[in-house]
Design goal:
Membrane topology: Single-pass membrane protein
Organism: Massilia jejuensis
Mean pLDDT: 77
Protein name: Neutral zinc metallopeptidase
Order of helices and strands: EHHEEEEEHHHHHHH
Main location: membrane
Strand order of the largest sheet: 1-2-6-5
Structural class: alpha/beta
Oligomer: single chain
Pfam family, one: Zn_peptidase
Length: 296
């Protein structure tokens, strides 16, 4: 993946012990009604906020109580930004997502408002509760931020035997896909629908939401390739290998030896690969309507 020297986003907050102050500020908000990108923003339900305390999510979905107490990490706002390769890579990938989604929203007569991306170590307080690095990267719609502990990328290589910079970029693009879903007015619908759905129904709809984020990541890759020609041989294959490795069936088989489809929340390996490829090959968000797809 060729990225060095490209524009770096200023929307990264570094909350690591030795990191800099980052972009500062809170999440963005779109006023008024949700953004209409084709027909994709309909009946979206049961988002599983990967990496956030499930009890907090259940409370949010059911409408009971407020967010869990936040565990704030203290950083020096005047400290210089970290300039190591990993940090510059994350800033560049986030910049790519901004450059891809801005014209997509503009074509619909709307303005894309980019998320903040927060780098942290171990644990961090969010509007969705306490985020834990062990659970992996996640997006919190409550503050409209993506949270990543960079040690997850090393875990990808050690545990799942997948890696490479484009595979890491796919992970970031997937989480930004959840931000797009929030911008189009999904979050309120999610909470209302989840309160009325059975567990199995909620899981099935969560799968559709996650697969749509995979498809959005594919659209991002398509648009960025057109603009930056950043892909190298093997990059797409590394992303597909990652999508396959983190499918629900693969994870369940690895952890418990059996597969329980009704408990899937993110989609099978084959489904995740299929929807990323669809987004990449079509380059059109209107092809990412997993909620009207008869076959996932």
């Amino acid at each position: 993946m060729k990225w060095e020297g490209d524009r770096e986003s200023g929307n990264v907050e570094d909350h690591r012990g030795g990191g800099g102050g980052g972009g500062g500020g809170g999440g963005f908000r779109i006023g008024g009604k949700g953004v209409g990108i084709g027909t994709i923003a309909i009946a979206l339900v049961a988002s599983l906020f990967f990496g956030v305390d499930p009890g907090t999510v259940i409370g949010m979905m059911g409408g009971g109580g407020g967010p869990a107490p936040q565990v704030q990490q203290q950083t020096d706002p005047n400290a210089p930004q970290a300039e190591d390769r990993e940090t510059r890579f994350v800033r560049t990938v986030l910049g790519y997502t901004e450059d891809a989604w801005t014209p997509i929203f503009a074509a619909q007569g709307s303005t894309y408002q980019a998320p903040k991306l927060v780098l942290f170590e171990g644990r961090i307080g969010t509007a969705c509760g306490t985020g834990n690095a062990a659970a992996g990267p996640f997006y919190c719609p409550g503050d409209r931020k993506v949270y990543i502990d960079l040690s997850f990328f090393r875990l990808m290589q050690e545990r799942f035997k997948v890696g490479g910079e484009f595979a890491q970029a796919y992970v970031i693009a997937h989480e930004v896909g959840h931000h797009v879903q929030t911008l189009v007015g999904v979050s309120d619908q999610v909470r209302k629908a989840q309160a009325q759905a059975s567990e199995t129904e909620g899981n099935a709809l969560s799968v559709r939401l996650e697969l749509q984020a995979d498809c959005f990541a594919g659209v991002w890759a398509n648009k960025t390739q057109q603009k930056e020609a950043f892909l190298e041989a093997g990059d797409i294959e590394s992303a597909l290998a990652t999508a396959s490795a983190i499918g629900d069936d693969a994870l369940q088989r690895q952890s418990r030896g059996t597969v329980v489809p009704d408990s899937f929340t993110h989609g099978s390996s084959a489904q995740r690969v299929r929807w990323f490829k669809r987004g990449f090959e079509k380059g059109d968000v209107q092809q990412c309507n997993t909620f009207e797809a008869r076959q996932l």
